[in-house]
Amino acid sequence: MIMIRVGVLYGGRSGEHDVSRCSAASVISYLDKTKYNVTAIGIDHDGRWHVQDSPEIVEDKNFGSVLSLNNTGDWFVNHYEREGKLYLYNAKSNKEICVDVIFPVVHGTFCEDGTLQGLLELAMVPYVGADVIGSAIGMDKDVAKRLLRDAGIPVVDWIKILKGQWDLTKKSLINEITDKIGFPCFIKPCNAGSSVGISKVKNFEFLEKAIDDAFQWDNKILIEKGINAREIEFSVIGNDFPESSTPGEIRPRHEFYSYEAKYIDSNGAELLIPADIDLELTETMKQAAVAGFSALCCTGMARVDFFLDRESNHFYLNEINTLPGFTNISMYPKLWEKSGIDYSSLLEKLIGLALERQKNKNRLRTDF
After folding, report:
1. Quick one: which of 209, 213, 202 has its CA closest to 178?
2. CATH number at residue 313
3. Comparing C-alpha atoms, which of 268, 196, 182, 178 is closest to residue 231?
């Protein structure tokens, strides 16, 4: 049996670096070692890649356990096609390794936004998850909302603001937010995940500070209408024929499902799988999850998050996460487990989809 060499890429330059290390610890643990030779590749806060000779799972005060990430030299990777594999070369030790497929367990900017995927595309290396366009669209909440709206999928009302606009026309923008969106509202960086930089604003007094805080994370932000809603999530998997899991519900014990509620406070939220919604609505939302996945050009996998209005029972697609959390208690694998696919089998299926997509790309002509 030929073993597939899998490179698990984790860490990264984003504010979700530690979340990624937590997810990577689970992926490394659950990959079937009888089928895969696994290489852990950590990306430090400066964006440098480090192949881990002996990766270990270590305790962390916030996340329970994370995959260690040590400086192992000056590593370089090929940005051109080389046998369809990713080669990593250590300039200090002259050591070279290669992997057949990359499993990115990275979140946020420079990782989940198409940047990393572009490098892998240049090298023509298979990788798990959405490609460049799906990753970039899924990361940009403003672009995603516009495409979903045009596809007939309901989204919550929002206003987009650029940093330059805020600096020059702050007063008029505040008036527009007050008139068109009102309170409560949510202030969100357009390109960030794990609820980093998000604030819930209940009145005029705290609006300006929340906007300034969000601009620390991105130069484009959203002001989104706050609704009294339940948070319902679906896991979607597939390339040309995606399918959806059973729904799950998140019941935050904080003001909203913040970074602290997700990762720091062990009792920050209650997860209900399956979500307590009727069969007809479940089926309609599953179809909307798959439709949203396709509308945003996603492949491989995504977690699709909805708001379900408590008063009207209308749903709104909130966002798509193309590289969702992958701890053994994260919603994406838990939803598939409840739908009949265990964690190890899910990883195998995702790697298979990555290899399938690359095989189809390899058929395409690149000359004329």
Report:
1. 202
2. 3.30.470.20
3. 268
